[in-house]
Amino acid sequence: MNQKPLRTLIIWTIWAAMSITTYAMLYQGSDVWTFVMADTSHITWIILGLFGLGVAGSFLLTLMITFETMTAYHIEEKAVGGGLKAIDPKRYRRRVGRFFSSLKTTIECNGDPEVESMLNVELSTYQRMSHSTEVIGNLLITLGLIGTVMGLTLTLTGLTGSLEALGEDQEMLLSGLRQAMAGMGTAFYTTLLGAVLGGILLRVFAQITDHGYDALFDKVVHTCLVHCSADLRSSAERDLKFLSAEIEMLGEQIAHLKPMLEAAQTAMAMFRKESAALRAETKEENHVLLENIHMRRMNAIKLRQEIQQLRSLNRPLWMRILNAFGIHKVP
User: Fold this and answer.
1) Who has the most CB within 10 Å: 2, 206, 221, 329?
2) Whether residue 314 sits in one domain with residue 277
3) How many CB atoms lie within 10 A of CB 198?
4) What pLDDT, in 10s, does the model give residues 153-165?
């Protein structure tokens, strides 16, 4: 299996593992989580929440870029030797597939495609997502500085209270010192978390996704300029190539249609055979029917003759004498 499409995901995973390991080594035995739980300003919670959002978005973007890169490598394998016509964009639902679909549509409309501009439009969402991760990192640094100011403010407030209670109220003095120490902790920890999580970790995650985006962009442009360059030029050679591809597709359709035609011919032969058998059977039945009709006609004639003879025999004697001399002929 080709490991190049997985390069962005692998680098992202390695950096995440290194960050977790380094954090565990540096903060093992420290009370950073105790401070986070006891932070009254809640700046650290906002920093951690935004950091989690940035990491989740960066990981999602890494997966999307990885899948797009795998699609780009698969399309390049199809385009080698076959050009743009060998690519079927309907098989790919991702943005790279949509880019090649738009490219084919532009060429079929006899247009002059701008490869990089069209690709920038299709992949602009990934670039914006990567930029958002970097913006979140900058925002964490800003929140760290805000936490520093808030911590220093709490420190000064606590020290002011301690100075006012100096020599008068021991309880108020200790409370002011505790508030001043908590303010210093807020100042230091928010600065540390904002700088480390936003200034280092998220910025590196953003750089990883940026490099993944650039690699994807270069791979698609390389496929277009190397394997599809003949299709991109408006020339008779491109038209001839497209015509050859269309003829090849038509040949494939005819090849698929040939078994259906053979099956239709077989069905027609069977139909003719059955029609001939039915015609022969019908002819024989008609012959028998004609014979029966002829026999019935002969029987009817004989029956009529017998009826006439019976009538002549049943006439009175005087009528038969007159008929014999022809004086009074009775039918």
Assistant:
1) 206
2) yes
3) 25
4) 767 766 666 556 5
